[in-house]
Amino acid sequence: MLAAIVLVAISLLFTNRIVNSVGSREKERVEQWADVIRKKAELINLTNRTFDELRDRERQKVELWARATRELVRPSSDDIDFTFVLDITKENTDIPVILLDNNNKLLSSKNLNFDAERLSEIFPNRNEDELMQKYSDSVTRLALIWAKTHEPIPIEITTNWVQYIYYFDSEKLVQLQEQRDSLIVSFNSELIDNTTLVPVLFLDRESGQVIETNIDSLKPFRLAPLNNKSAVIAKMVDSVEIVLASNQLGMVYFDDSEELKQLKLYPYLQFVLIGLFILIGYIIFSTFRKAEQNQVWAGMAKETAHQLGTPISSLMAWISLLESNGHPKEEIDEMNKDIDRLTTIADRFEKIGSGAKLDPNDLKSTLQKSFSYLKNRISGKVDFSIQIPENEVVVMHNPSLLEWVIENICKNAVDAMDGVGQLHIEVTDSGHTVYVDISDTGKGIPSNKIKTIFQPGYTTKQRGWGLGLSLVKRIIETYHKGRVFVLKSELGKGTTFRIILQKP
Q: Model's pTM, two decimal places?
């Protein structure tokens, strides 16, 4: 056992060292990954700021272009110089704009990717008026689509005359936006496509919105606030703060990998397996020990029966000789009773050694025979009584061995009462089971000794081997497949033994 404990301790220490080493390397790898993610986030933020600045500049250009357009179309005197205004309108060579009146009628457009000539290639069978109308409708619809993301700029020519400039991002700004979106996709793919990464949860710090995650159970909550945020975060082992924008912070929470979690549990599983191995070894050892004890019991019983056989035969011959010489019949009868008793004892040991045969016998007959034998051989100061049902009680048992059980328990009870008291046997038939209760008014058994009284060698007598109750337990439980135990015991008031036997 000491060697097993030492081996378990060494194994646990070694496994824990491996777990701690793997955990440290995993954390280091996550921190390196977090640094890369942080740098990517900084690049995205820089791109976002550049994009916002360029978009603001483009709107300023469109607003300036709108004021210039207003000056060109507003009624004015002939002596005004429009050179500067015309230069401003000519400078816009990259921002697509569309000019509509307040009835959404197309007035003009600039820097669009398609024109009426392209429509003529697409619809070769249409006349010029139809093509111009289709072009006008297409441009008008495009302007209304732009208005959803870019607020149009009004040009108030007169009180009742208002035109609107619709615009969109320039081609350079569109390319910059695509690059930014590509960076964001790359940033998110670091979370969801990295199969070697530990479980990661990327949250908006203020709103608790799930920006991205590679945890399958949380993927349905992407781009939505996490209700049980605190409970989920509590399961994570560490976190990294990432700046998403000037006024927005993100938190990357990460957990141990499943492999590391399993590795942490491995020492305890190993301990359980080793304990199970020790338990199985103990059970096997105990089984072999009991088998050896059974062999010793059987061998001792056979040898006892064999040793008793020779003197019994000799005594029977001497009694026959005395009887032929005219010895008094009363004395011969008493000697024959003792010979019968010795024969019964030898027969009991023989059955224990060779295996008892069980037959459906009447329990009343067996108990009454034991009662008659004991009543004439125990102290007259013991009030001996028996209570048996009137009907026949058939139980699978060996009468000779069961008588031995009753005699052993009753003799122990008489010894516990010091030869003075009450001894009562009660039989209860409950259908499939029969209970035999043997009660005395002796000293009682201490509660801490109740489990040990059936063990071989246990005795409270000055003389004796402590085998009586051990034989009782073996006969009832091993041969009769029943049970015997102390039903109740109270110091100074007595003890009740219960025997349980099954009916055929």
A: 0.45
